[in-house]
Amino acid sequence: MNIFRLVGDMSHLLAIIILLMKMWKSRSVAGISGKSQILFAIVFTTRYLDLFTSFVSIYNTSMKVFFIGTSYVTVYFIYQHFKPTYDSNHDTFRVEFLIVPVGGLAFLVNHEFSLLEILWTFSIYLESVAILPQLFMVSKTGEAESITSHYLFALGSYRALYLLNWIYRYYFEGFFDLIAVVAGCVQTILYCDFFYLYITKVLKGKKISLPA
Amino acid sequence: HNVTMRKDEL
User: Fold this and answer.
1) One of this protein's GO BP terms (chain A) (predicted)?
2) Nearest CA in chain A to B2
3) What is the ipTM of this complex?
4) Residue A157 burial (C-beta neighbours within 10 Å; 0-12, 13-18, 19+)
5) pLDDT tens-digit profile of A62-75?
6) Which of chain A's ends, N or C, has fewer CB atoms near its CB within 10 Å?
7) Inter-chain contacts counted by CB atoms under 8 A, chains A and B
């Protein structure tokens, strides 16, 4: 474990807590893409299948349980509990255009042709594009609540910090995973536009309004 | 590149 990965995991944890608090306090899921949250639930489910077969540490196991659990709670909030506030008219990204190519790529490009490894690879590739429905929704609605912007900033920062973690691990541990690094770069690049808006606008108290 | 490297990352 290194500081970059620890801060990255905490940033990821914070993002999920911000989202859940926003939903619970405002009793609303307005502006949140249910499709992205479904993709995240798929990401965690396919990545943490080794939850019961390989034990790394208490931290690792507890974080995995937390991520899987909260991802399903979030989907439940959107599609059941706070359904009346779900803005399905603006959450129209065709996720099949993500899942099919990502599934095919995971099948072709992976470290080992085994079920667990292919599912892990699928999860890594899917996570890199899972935020697209959410970013698409923000661009369609033309704006995002500031709390949603904080959620996206924390979520985008987590993988950016993982890039630093991989640089650190490459130099100090000789650890290198090309698939995770390439997907992590794609994932972080997708946030760049948002990062710019967040830093130039939200931090000055303005609301984000992506070009609709 | 040892594939069976333990997946210790989240």
Assistant:
1) vesicle-mediated transport
2) A111
3) 0.87
4) buried
5) 999 999 999 999 99
6) C
7) 27
> Given A5, A54, A117, which is nearest B9 (Cβ)?
A5
Residue A204 pLDDT > 90: no
Interface of A with B in 143-172 (CB under 8 A): 162, 165
* Cβ contact, residue pair A176, B9, below 8 Å: no
- Of the candidates A79, A132, A125, A73, which has an alpha carbon nearest to the alpha carbon of residue A102? A125
B3 pLDDT above the threshold of 60:
no
Return the minimum-mean-pLDDT range out of A7-16, A164-173, A202-211: A202-211
Of B3, B6, B9, the CB nearest to A111: B3
Q: Do A56 and B5 count as a contact with CB atoms less than 8 A apart?
A: no
Q: Answer for the pair B6, A56: CB distance below 8 angstroms, yes or no.
A: yes
CB-closest option in B3, B6, B9 to A112: B3
How far is Cα A41 from Cα A75, in angstroms, rounded to an integer? 8
B2 touches chain A (CB under 8 A): no
Residue in chain B lying closest to A45 (CA): B10
| pLDDT tens digit sequence for A111-155 | 999 999 999 999 999 999 999 999 999 999 988 999 999 999 999
Angle (CA) A194-A99-A167 rounded to 5° is: 55
